[in-house]
Write a structure and sequence with these properties.
Blueprint lengths: L13 H9 L6 E2 L16 H11 L14 H12 L4 H4 L3 E7 H16 L5 E5 L3 H9 L4 E5 L1 E2 L4 E2 L1 H8 L7 E5 L12 H14 L2 E6 L13 H8 L4 E6 L11 E7 L3 H18 L6 H11 L1 H32 L7 H4 L4 E3 L4 H11 L1 E2 L5 E3 L8 H12 L1
Parallel strand pairs: 1-12, 3-4, 3-7, 7-8, 8-9
Antiparallel strand pairs: 2-10, 5-6, 9-10, 11-13
Helix pairs in contact: 2-11, 2-12, 3-11, 5-10, 8-9, 11-12, 12-15, 14-15
The protein binds ligand KET.
Length: 397
C-alpha cells in the first residue's frame, strides 16, 4: 500500500535539533533553530509569563472549543500590538484578525485563503527566505518565485534590484516580506526604503504578505512593526502573520495570529468569515492555554511593562553576543570583515559559511549552524562565544 512513499530527508532546521540532542559531546553549541536561549543556555520562562500563568491556574475552568477565529480578547490584543491601539485601521474595525496555531498557522491559513480567492496569482519570496515559506505556499498550490534581497558581496540588501523587480510584477502578485529581523539573513529594509517600496506596492496592486515572527528582537516592539503600520497608513490591503513563539518564549504553546487589513469594516467582516472557513478546513479551532497567557500579559499594564522590559533584555543580550563574536573573530582573523554581525539584526546572521564549512563546524567542533550558513545568535553565551569564534576561525582558515 505505501511502497511508493519515499523516506523523509529531514527538515533543514528542525531535524538539526534532533541531531543536536543526540550529540553527546560536552562542548556542543546549538546555533541552528531560531530559539532564544539565555546566557546559561536555558530556554527562559519569562517572569511576566509565569505571573500570568500562575494567575490563570486559579481560574481553571471548562475547556470547550474556541471559536474558529479564536478568542476575541486575544485577537484585539494582537491588533493593538501589531498596529498600535489608536491606529485608524484598528479603530475603524477594518482589520480581520484570527488567532492561529503559531505564525505557521497564520501563513498556512492565509495561503489557503489566497489560493481560493486569488488562484491565478503567484507568490514572490525574498532570496533567501525562511526555509518553510516556499513549502507552505507551494503546498497551498502557488508557484513560488524569488525576488532579489540579500547581497552576498556586502552582507547587506540588494534594495534597488528588489525595487526594480517589484515594479515589474503583475497586479495581485503576492509578495512575502519579513517585517523585521529577516530570517535567515538579519538584513532589514530601512524605514526610508519601506517608504520607497510601499508606493510601488500600491501602484502595482501587489498583495503584501508580511511575516512578523520577531517583533521586539530588532529595535523594539514599536520600531519593529514599522512596516505593517506604514502599509496600513498607505491604505494597502495586506496580510500580516505574527508569532509569539519567540517573544513570549512559548514555542510549544503555538501562539500566533493572522491579520488581513481591508478597506472597510464590512469588507473585513466578509474576509473574517472566509478565514474562519479556511481554519475549519485546516484545524477547526485554535488552542486555549498559551494564548490565554499572552492575552493576560498584553492586556495587563504592569505585566505588559514587565514583558517589554524582559524582551528588551533579550534584545540587548543578542546585541552583546553579536559584538563579542565580532571582536573575537576580528582578533583571530584580522584580515577578514565580520562587520555583518554588527549590521545584521535580530536572532539571525548570514555568515557566508559554505555548506562544507558548516559541516566541518558541526563534525569537528560540535557547533551547529543551518547548512545555509545561518547562525542563530541567541544560542551564543559568554561561556561559548570564544569557543565558537575559535571554531569558525579554524574552518575559515
Ligand atoms: C520568519 C518566520 N516565520 C514563522 C516562523 C514560525 O513560527 P511559529 O509561530 O513557531 O509557527 C518562524 C520560525 N522559525 C524558526 C523555527 C522553525 O523553523 O520553525 C527558525 O527559523 O529556526 C520564522 O522564522
Amino acid at each position: 500500500m505505501f511502497e511508493h512513499i519515499p523516506a523523509y530527508p529531514g527538515d533543514p532546521i528542525l531535524s538539526l535539533m534532533e541531531d543536536f540532542q543526540r550529540d553527546t559531546r560536552p562542548n556542543k553549541v546549538s546555533l541552528s533553530i531560531g530559539i532564544y536561549f539565555d546566557d546559561d543556555g536555558r530556554l527562559p520562562v519569562m517572569k511576566a509569563v509565569r505571573t500570568a500563568e500562575t494567575a490563570l491556574l486559579q481560574e481553571i475552568g471548562p475547556r470547550s472549543y474556541l471559536p474558529m477565529e479564536g478568542m476575541a480578547d486575544y485577537r484585539a490584543a494582537v491588533q493593538k500590538l501589531a498596529f498600535g491601539p489608536t491606529h485608524e485601521a484598528v479603530t475603524s474595525g477594518r482589520i480581520a484578525t484570527i488567532q492561529t496555531i503559531g505564525g505557521s498557522g497564520g501563513l498556512k491559513v492565509g495561503g489557503d485563503f489566497l489560493k481560493r480567492y486569488f488562484s491565478d496569482s503567484q507568490v514572490w519570496v525574498s532570496d533567501p527566505t525562511w526555509e518553510n515559506h516556499r513549502a507552505m505556499f507551494e503546498g497551498a498550490g502557488f508557484p513560488v518565485n524569488l525576488y532579489p534581497y540579500y547581497d552576498a558581496a556586502t552582507g547587506g540588501l540588494r534594495f534597488e534590484e528588489m525595487l526594480a523587480t517589484f515594479k515589474t510584477l503583475p497586479a495581485r502578485s503576492i509578495v512575502l516580506m519579513h517585517a523585521s529581523c529577516h530570517n535567515p539573513t538579519g538584513v532589514d529594509l530601512s524605514q526610508d526604503q519601506w517608504k520607497q517600496l510601499i508606493p510601488v506596492i500600491a501602484e502595482r496592486g501587489l498583495i503584501p504578505y508580511v511575516d512578523m515572527a520577531y517583533q521586539g528582537f530588532g529595535d523594539g516592539l514599536v520600531e519593529d512593526a514599522f512596516a505593517p503600520r506604514a502599509l496600513a497608513d498607505a491604505g494597502v490591503r495586506f496580510f500580516l502573520a505574527n508569532s509569539f513563539s519567540k517573544s513570549f518564549s512559548l514555542y510549544g504553546e503555538r501562539c500566533g495570529g493572522l491579520s488581513v487589513v481591508c478597506g472597510s469594516a464590512e469588507e473585513a467582516g466578509r474576509v473574517l468569515g472566509q478565514l474562519k472557513s479556511a481554519v475549519r478546513a485546516n484545524y477547526s479551532s485554535p488552542p486555549t492555554h498559551g494564548p490565554r497567557i499572552v492575552t493576560r500579559v498584553l492586556s495587563t499594564p504592569e505585566l505588559y511593562a514587565q514583558w517589554d522590559a524582559e524582551l528588551a533584555e533579550m534584545r540587548g543580550r543578542i546585541k552583546a553576543m553579536r559584538e563579542a563574536l565580532h571582536a573575537s573573530l576580528a582578533e583571530r582573523l584580522p584580515g577578514r570583515d565580520f562587520g555583518y554581525f554588527l549590521t545584521q539584526r535580530g536572532m539571525f546572521s548570514y555568515t557566508g559559511l559554505t555548506p562544507e564549512q558548516v559541516d566541518r563546524l558541526r563534525e569537528e567542533h560540535a557547533v551547529y549552524l543551518v547548512r545555509s550558513g545561518r547562525m542563530c545568535i541567541a544560542g551564543l553565551s559568554t561561556r561559548n562565544v570564544a569557543y565558537v569564534a575559535q571554531a569558525m576561525a579554524a574552518v575559515l582558515d
